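Project outcomes to date are best conveyed with an example. Our students and postdoctoral researchers have been running inverse folding experiments weekly, and each run begins with a structure described purely in tokens. The record below, which covers 134 residues, was selected by the lab manager from last quarter's runs and is presented without edits.
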């Protein structure tokens, strides 16, 4: 019985000092949406953990992070990236920059996030033997 009271006192102390450990949650859960938009685009930017907005020679990857850096592009540039995540989730990024003399630099970018395929369920939760792809 004595060990049980020490254990109870330790749990109570931890719950007062560190409530996030006891409840298993964070204070920022549910405060932002569309977190898929925070995926890094470009291999260099991903390697820098997204701190890419001030890189002076960002190339065509700068289209996503800071489009004003495209003014430093002086030749055609293209960048491609593919990331494979867990549970068949994949992310693709492509960008292209084309300098056009007196008119500046034109750029185009494309990003695609795929969640893979899901098994379709009917209203009672049974399998319908169809796969859907969001």
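After processing, the design step wrote out the following sequence:
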């Amino acid at each position: 019985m004595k060990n049980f009271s020490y254990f109870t006192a330790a749990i109570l102390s931890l719950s007062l000092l560190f409530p996030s450990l006891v409840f298993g949650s964070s204070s920022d859960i549910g405060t932002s949406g569309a977190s898929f938009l925070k995926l890094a685009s470009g291999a260099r930017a991903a390697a820098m953990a997204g701190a890419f907005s001030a890189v002076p020679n960002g190339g065509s990857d700068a289209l996503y992070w800071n489009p004003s850096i495209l003014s430093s592009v002086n030749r055609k540039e293209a960048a491609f990236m593919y990331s494979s995540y867990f549970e068949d989730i994949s992310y693709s990024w492509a960008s292209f920059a084309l300098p056009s003399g007196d008119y500046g630099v034109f750029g185009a970018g494309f990003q695609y996030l795929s969640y893979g395929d899901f098994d379709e369920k009917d209203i009672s939760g049974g399998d319908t033997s169809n796969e859907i792809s969001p």
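The chain has a mean pLDDT of 76. The CA atoms of residues 79 and 95 lie 5 Å apart. The training component of this project remains on track.
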